[in-house]
Amino acid sequence: MSLTLTQNDLSHVVAADREHVWHHLSQHKHYETVDPRVFVEGKGMKLWDTNGREYLDAVSGGVWTVNVGYGRESIANAVRDQLVKLNYYAGAAGNVPAALFAAKLIEKMPGLSRVYYSNSGSEANEKAYKMVRQIAARHHGGKKWKILYRERDYHGTTIATLATSGQPQRAAQYGPYPDGFVMVPHCLEYRKQWDVENYGERAADAIEEVILREGPDTVGAIVLEPVTAGGGVITPPEGYWRRVQEICRKYEILLHIDEVVCGLGRTGSWFGYQHYDIKPDIVTMAKGVASGYAAISCTVTTEQVFDLFKDAPQDTMSYFRDISTFGGCTAGPVAALENMRIIEEEGLLENTTRMGERMLANLNVLREKHAVIGDVRGKGLFCGAELVADRKTKEPLDERHVQAVVAGCLAQGVIIGATNRSLDGGLNNTLCLSPALIATADDIDQITDAIDNALAKEFV
């Protein structure tokens, strides 16, 4: 460990944090009696806090972001050099790293061609929604303005993206929401809504039922995560995506894939949708695009979508009249270029596949050992273990016990995640694991060993 400052050296930092920082997703009453955790340094998959305590990070920065690990000097140096040369100009003009990263990104995404820059996943999705609405206004006489979203999926923190939140606790207390956003059923086979043999196709057919109910001429797009993330790490059942694609083509509905979590290697492919042989019209991404070294998000479209905004140059309202101030920062794309180089040259997609298989295998061993684990699922280094009070009835484990398991891992120096303050019906019961793509076999074993010990302690 290279941390040299002592706890006393950093006491003023902790005090300043307690007095002035408003933390995300946190009840601050707790900090009246307990110091907030303040991290000081990271290297690889490890973190150190102001007390000098070491942690193994199994959630890539807490929200599935630091894909290539901490302490990458080559990314920091690339950003530094670019900022000295040119730090910013508004996105109405181009810059060198933005052009180069867009070209490199499109190489990984056959069938898509255009990259619109902004700086967060929420913003990237908001841009996509605005595109759909403007297309409806200009090309469909104001019709096809509705956007479908899926139960248990999540797409961001703005009012519009929360209107497409399939996680009711996330959206609670922030309404009323704008009209035109319509939910379709989830596709989690472990908690299936229909007792049929071809569950995947049936779950997709439920989307068509919603389209017919709303009126196909009113529906412009559907936004879906390739693997549902914060809603419980839900991998799509067999036949689901093929049928979804068919339905979108049948009713001329744009297919928008939200890759904010799954993109840039998390599932073992460059993008999660690439596992399922589908051809999206819009793809959004953020988080792992630059592994958290700079803020960047992208809304990527086909040329066909792009062309809908340039067909009437004499019409001053025809172009996409949108801007993202910090979408003009050069740090994001230059960091993204180096991040992509690292993934390629270090073979991190292949490592993600191998280590993901190991993690799933380890979790399935734990499932045999601990009756509280009802289901194990995942893709690449993105895995979940759903905890239940009773395997036969699938009654969800009380969220207090789930969080006790998370705390039990933390006590062992391993940071894991879990669904929380997201879903109704007691369904905040899935442990979530998303270690960096650099994870080794020893890292994976340490993570699952910590879960094993925490479960054993909580359910003696």
Automatic annotation (TrEMBL):
<dbReference type="InterPro" id="IPR015422">
    <property type="entry name" value="PyrdxlP-dep_Trfase_small"/>
</dbReference>
<dbReference type="InterPro" id="IPR005814">
    <property type="entry name" value="Aminotrans_3"/>
</dbReference>
<dbReference type="GO" id="GO:0006526">
    <property type="term" value="P:L-arginine biosynthetic process"/>
</dbReference>
<keyword id="KW-0808">Transferase</keyword>
<dbReference type="GO" id="GO:0030170">
    <property type="term" value="F:pyridoxal phosphate binding"/>
</dbReference>
<dbReference type="InterPro" id="IPR015421">
    <property type="entry name" value="PyrdxlP-dep_Trfase_major"/>
</dbReference>
<dbReference type="Pfam" id="PF00202">
    <property type="entry name" value="Aminotran_3"/>
</dbReference>
<keyword id="KW-0055">Arginine biosynthesis</keyword>
<dbReference type="GO" id="GO:0008483">
    <property type="term" value="F:transaminase activity"/>
</dbReference>
<keyword id="KW-0028">Amino-acid biosynthesis</keyword>
<keyword id="KW-0032">Aminotransferase</keyword>
<keyword id="KW-0663">Pyridoxal phosphate</keyword>
<comment type="similarity">
    <text>Belongs to the class-III pyridoxal-phosphate-dependent aminotransferase family.</text>
</comment>
<protein>
    <submittedName>
        <fullName>Aminotransferase class III-fold pyridoxal phosphate-dependent enzyme</fullName>
    </submittedName>
</protein>
<dbReference type="InterPro" id="IPR015424">
    <property type="entry name" value="PyrdxlP-dep_Trfase"/>
</dbReference>
<dbReference type="InterPro" id="IPR049704">
    <property type="entry name" value="Aminotrans_3_PPA_site"/>
</dbReference>
